[in-house]
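Hi F.,

I've been meaning to write this up properly since the lab meeting, where we talked about keeping a consistent format for the predictions we share between groups. The idea is simple: the sequence comes first, exactly as it goes in, then the structure tokens exactly as they come out, then a line or two of notes. No screenshots and no reformatting. I'm using this chain as the first example so we have something concrete to point to.
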Amino acid sequence: MPEDTKTKSPHYHLKYKICVSGAAETGHCSADALDKAKELGREIVRHNCVLVTGATTGFPFWAAIGAKEEHGISIGLSPASSEREHVERFKLPVDYMDIIIYTGFDYSGRNLLLTRSADAVVIGCGRIGTLNEFTIAFEDGKPIGVLSGTGGTADVIEDIVKASNRKARIVYDEDPKRLLEKLIALIEEEKIQKE
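Output, unedited:
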């Protein structure tokens, strides 16, 4: 065994899974929100991580485009129970995904599985579904990154957290690269504490 792997966790080779949560309909998002989503997807791959989304349109879809442009891995968790239902009933895309897991649990069940399957969650411009994914991650104590300045729920989460009177592992930044670096630091800090 190489010397540098003797002191590492037996799972050191596993990539971090970063969930990107955001609005499927983006009319209320900031003018540069989708560009930031795309750059976020690129940065996830550049940092040797895997993108996980709700296999949807809008902000997460643009993150998936960015991830695939960097030749990364993009996994989607669908609310549907099959590809046909995913496309026909939910009107969701299959593009820019390497794997789609059909949960069959509609949006609320999908949201739970989505956030729990990830090592950390990034919140971008969102609506109520994004807020739902945020609160699940918050309650589960997941590391969370908020891409500030993108609009919607992303720009009110800091106030919500303050009003909750609870500590959380959340970082904020307007720059996708800096945000991801802060988030990975939170993941690694958590791993060290658990070892």
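Notes:
Confidence is low (pLDDT under 50) at residues 1-7.
The chain has eight helices and seven strands.

If this format works for you, I'll send the rest the same way.

G.
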